[in-house]
């Protein structure tokens, strides 16, 4: 397989992977506020972290033992995208929105989306190794296009005028289903040989905690956690905050307010 070809395929995968997320991550708080759920914004963003504590590990076990990573990536995106469409259609049903139903659909969707972040990396690493390429040199330029995809859909949602509506979930769902189909065209990632078996601790990645005995790793973990907290606060509340400047005539028509 030509190296340029595999790089292009993995670049498209990363672009779509984060485009799915960029459709709503920074604007969902604005929609929730406009829908009357401002006091629940925190719970929606917190749920991403909660499901990330166990779902990636569980899906990792499945990918190691039973289902090739590229197929599991497609299955997870199919389920996440389908549930996100369910969330969108529920908001369009015309009935009074119920927080419990809205939150349940969102939780199930992100529960299947969050593992795809790790699965997409696994697919990329395995494919690059199979092509005989240096991961350290080859992967970073590919991963950059994930950020490009995130930014592109974030801007697109703004230009489409669906930042304050549930239309952002429809955009995310459509991209997720496209990624689900595309995943089935990616290079095969074999499961672990049947003779190889990992203990539960190793399968869940819990052995990594021994690294925290090192002071540098412990500090890195603590500050990464604090950075993650700050990032989610910004994701959830920056857009609604900037949007309030639209009530001030001097700022209402500025680019930053109109396309926050």
Q: What is the global morphology?
A: globular
Largest sheet: number of strands, sense, barrel closure? none
CATH-defined topology: Growth Hormone, Chain: A
Measured by DSSP, the beta-strand proportion falls in under 5%
* Cα-to-Cα separation, first versus last residue: 43 Å
Helicity, in percent? over 70%
Helix and strand pattern: HHHHHHHHHHHH
CATH class: Mainly Alpha
Please give a quick description of this structure.
The protein is mainly α.
Keywords:
260 residues; mainly alpha; Growth Hormone, Chain: A; 12 helices; 73% helix; globular
List the SSEs and their pairings.
Elements: H1 3-22, H2 28-34, H3 41-52, H4 55-65, H5 69-91, H6 99-130, H7 135-160, H8 167-183, H9 200-203, H10 215-243, H11 249-252, H12 255-258
Helix pairs in contact: 1-6, 1-7, 1-8, 2-10, 3-6, 3-10, 4-6, 5-6, 5-8
Can you tell me about this structure?
The chain is mainly α and 260 residues long. It has one domain (3-197): MFS general substrate transporter like domains (Growth Hormone, Chain: A), CATH 1.20.1250. It contains twelve helices and no strands. Helix 1 (3-22) runs antiparallel to helix 6 and helix 5 packs antiparallel against helix 8 (167-183). It is globular, with a radius of gyration of 20 Å. The model has no long low-confidence stretch (mean pLDDT 93).
């Amino acid at each position: 397989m030509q190296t340029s070809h595999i790089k292009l395929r993995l670049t498209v995968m990363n672009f779509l992977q984060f485009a799915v997320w960029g459709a709503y991550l920074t604007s969902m708080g604005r929609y929730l506020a406009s829908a009357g759920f401002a006091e629940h914004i925190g719970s929606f963003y917190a749920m991403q972290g909660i499901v990330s504590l166990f779902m990636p590990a569980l899906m990792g076990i499945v990918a190691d033992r039973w289902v090739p990573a590229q197929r599991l990536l497609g299955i997870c995106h199919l389920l996440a995208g389908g549930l996100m469409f369910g969330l969108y259609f529920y908001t369009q049903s015309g009935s009074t929105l119920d927080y419990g139903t809205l939150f349940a659909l969102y939780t199930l969707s992100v529960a299947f989306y969050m593992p795809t972040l790790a699965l997409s990396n696994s697919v990329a690493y395995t494919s690059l190794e199979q092509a005989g390429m240096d991961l350290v040199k080859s992967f970073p330029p590919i991963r950059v296009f994930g950020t490009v995809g995130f930014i592109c859909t974030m801007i697109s949602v703004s230009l489409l005028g669906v930042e304050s509506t549930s239309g952002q979930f429809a955009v995310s769902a459509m991209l997720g289903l496209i990624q689900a189909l595309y995943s089935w065209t990616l290079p095969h990632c074999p499961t672990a040989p049947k003779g190889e078996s990992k203990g539960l601790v190793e399968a869940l990645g819990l052995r990594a905690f021994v690294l925290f005995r090192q002071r540098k790793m412990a500090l890195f973990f603590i500050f990464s956690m604090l950075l993650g907290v700050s990032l989610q606060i910004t994701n959830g509340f920056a857009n609604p905050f900037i949007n309030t400047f639209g009530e001030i005539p001097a700022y209402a028509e500025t680019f930053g307010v109109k396309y926050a």
